[in-house]
Design goal:
With 118 residues, this protein is mainly β. The protein has no helices and 9 strands. The chain has one domain: Jelly Rolls (Sandwich). The protein is 0% helix and 50% strand. Strands 1, 3, 6, 7 and 9 form a 5-stranded antiparallel beta sheet that branches.
């Protein structure tokens, strides 16, 4: 509260809990975007952005560990951004991964969110 009795409200999570990651892939193996956080720690996925630098149409699986929770289109020389209306919570101590549905010249796979214990 300020001296003139105005209430101060902070929206969102602390930036100390922000997690993001990604990289480029040419095959269908998993790209970790949020690493497993330890016992009792959950990842909350807030955004994914992907780009396909090849002439091959494909898709991206968004995975909670190895379980697919969403499938995103990944057109040739195109991209996609996914921002769910509310964060997707992972299983405890489990990474969020992205994987293309088919091999491409280069796919750029990134995502992020925050971690919490509940």
């Amino acid at each position: 509260m300020t001296l003139d009795r105005r209430q101060i409200v902070q929206l969102g999570e602390s930036s100390a809990k922000d997690v993001k990651g990604g990289g480029s892939k040419t095959d269908t193996s998993d790209q970790s975007i949020m690493a497993a956080g330890g016992a009792g720690v959950y990842n909350y996925l807030q955004w994914v952005t992907v780009y396909n630098a090849s002439a091959t149409n494909t898709f991206v699986n968004v995975k909670d560990g190895s379980t697919v929770v969403a499938v995103l289109p990944l057109p040739a020389y195109g991209g996609c951004m996914f921002m769910p209306p509310r964060p997707i919570r992972s299983t405890a101590n489990t990474a969020f991964n992205l994987a293309t549905g088919g091999s491409v010249t280069t796919a750029y796979l990134y995502g992020g969110g925050y971690t919490a214990t509940a």
